[in-house]
Amino acid sequence: MNTVNSASPVLVVGLGNPGPQYEATRHNAGVAVVGELLGRATPVPAQLSHHKRTNTEVAELAAGRLVPGRQVVLARTRAFMNLSGGPVKALADYFGVSPADLYVVHDELDLQPGEVKLRAGGGDHGHNGLKSVTKSLGGAAYNKVAVGIGRPPGRMAPADYVLKPFSSREQVDLSIAAADAADAIIAAVAG
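^ that's the sequence the OP posted. Answer follows.
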């Protein structure tokens, strides 16, 4: 994916919707991965918090290291999914992160629950959060980390499905997927 460059940080952003009513929903799978990485960063940040020098409406942040010699900024956007692009671009600009060092973690309908896929560049697969990020970055290729949530049952609309909470079985799959996604991100950052 990229080579280790200690001059600029890596930015990992978990997409999701803000507010407690959305915390456990499928659309916030990316935020779960950031939570997993938060526990692996050194020194271990206590939690994500508003950054004093950035707009507090943009994101919550924590900084640390996932691999020796490389700072990582972990973030979750504070905008709704379809408006994720502005906050992601603001964070990348503020920290001087190139698209090659940006990892956007998102839910993916086309992967089974528990599956993870990391890819550099590529399309948005109809994901409105990714569409917003791609547009805000001017079409530049960045790393996408997809966390499978599966397809909605029957005739349920995808927009309704992503806003539903995970079932107990799916929460187990999400925990495994969050760990796998964190492993993939760390391996990619390590080069």
